[in-house]
Design brief:
about 280 residues, alpha/beta, seven-stranded parallel sheet, three-stranded mixed sheet, 10 strands, globular
Length: about 280
């Protein structure tokens, strides 16, 4: 497969940010190739290196999304980036994580960032978003028996709309030279507790929703017992939820508006637009 000039490979192209990013780039006139295990322009599987060359053929920009529900992937990503350089990729926008500098050593987020920083044949940009609002509309943090169950210790997070993340990423890929070496941390405009999120969902659905704030170890043990996460991913959940409980959740900033020219989406507006997503959940 031969790509057109100025073509971006979007890994996770059927995912929450990737699908939105691909659409935005196409609307802005940039060639796009989506890649995923199923349903994308090309098949891409991190565990099947045979799928990597075709995905990279003819592209010069890359939206890098690392393997999901894993903590150890630095070697896989490094090998893929070697292949990307050889194939002619000259810019990478990496979907990292808010507060990546504080990630546990067992998690390879910082290793990937360091790998990119050490490459001279391509430029890169880091996008480190806060927790996404879509966590509350999909299976990550569903409403069960009228409650959102997640340990936060009452801490706050500046939840961000995946659409805002995608728009920021789009700008970095449309004009990579203007964003080379940049680090952006997209957030929403308000720092909210999950209790406040629950109140907002209750207001738009007209049904009671509460936040159940369990012990972190008990919650993680339950996720492991249910087979929802692999055993080594517990360290990631402990870090993410522990940051909120320690008062180190994301705080609002102006990165979305600075990069895109538009203010970030408020959770109340997101909730109004997505009220139907909770209708069946709150009825249970």
């Amino acid at each position: 497969m031969t790509g057109s000039p100025q073509t971006t490979l979007v890994l996770g192209g059927t995912g929450r940010t990737g699908s939105l990013l691909a659409r935005t780039l196409a609307e802005r006139g940039l060639g796009v190739r989506t890649a995923a295990r199923h349903g994308a322009d090309v098949r891409f599987d991190w565990d099947d290196p045979a799928t990597h060359p075709d995905a990279l053929n003819g592209v010069d920009r890359l939206y890098l999304v690392t393997p999901v529900l894993r903590v150890a992937y630095a070697d896989q990503v490094a090998a893929f980036l070697d292949l990307a350089e050889a194939a002619g990729v000259r810019h990478v926008t990496y979907l990292s994580t808010y507060g990546a500098d504080q990630a546990p050593p067992e998690v390879d987020i910082k290793a990937v960032e360091a790998n990119l920083a050490g490459r001279t044949a391509l430029t890169h940009c880091l996008v480190r978003p806060a927790w996404v609002m879509q966590n509350f509309t999909d299976t990550h943090l569903p409403i069960v028996d009228g409650a959102i169950t997640v340990p936060t210790g009452g801490g706050t997070e500046a939840f961000v709309d995946a659409a805002d993340i995608a728009t920021v990423a789009a700008e970095t890929l449309l004009a990579p030279e203007a964003h080379a070496g940049a680090r952006y941390a997209p957030t929403g405009p308000q720092a909210l507790t999950v209790g406040q999120v629950a109140d907002t969902i209750a207001a738009v659905t007209g049904r009671p929703v509460t936040h159940h704030d369990p012990d972190s170890d008990t919650w993680i043990a339950g996720a492991l017992a249910a087979g929802l996460i692999p055993a080594d991913y517990a360290v990631m959940l402990r870090w993410l939820t522990g940051a909120l409980a320690a008062g180190n959740g994301s705080t609002p900033n102006d990165d979305v508006e600075k990069v895109t020219g538009q203010p970030p989406t408020a959770f109340r507006d997101f909730a109004r637009r997505n009220a139907r997503a909770w209708t069946s959940q709150v009825a249970r």
